[in-house]
Predict the 3D structure of the following.
Amino acid sequence: MPSIRDFLSYGASAILIFFGLIFLIASSIEPFRVIPGLTMLILGLGVIYTNMKLKKAELSKEMLESKVINLARRKEGYVTVADVSAGLNVPVDIAEEVLHSLERKGIAFLDFKRIGDEGVEVYRILGAKS
């Protein structure tokens, strides 16, 4: 789900790009409008680029791992791939990758008793149970 910041930044970008293009079109009649038109266009594209970079940084592996651990704390130390995917708003394959990474580091373990009870892979996160 996009945040308010996303809506505002993409809205501001759209407005800057729109007016930048209008100024560039108007520059065919009055050439001095080229500079403000290009400036607005570049600013609008820059805001979009920056927002995309920030989104990518939010999905960094380490940050996701810490978010999974915090999610496990709220769920009494146990999470499933579906819990991680829904709770952190990430695709299922990324949720699986993060849980496997935590498992390789020795922070997460498959709980075979719960797997038998629930029918899905349930991971126990060490240190997350209260």
User: Anything to note?
Assistant: Residues 34-58 form the longest helix (25 residues). DSSP finds six helices and three strands in the chain. The chain has two domains: 4-58, 61-125.
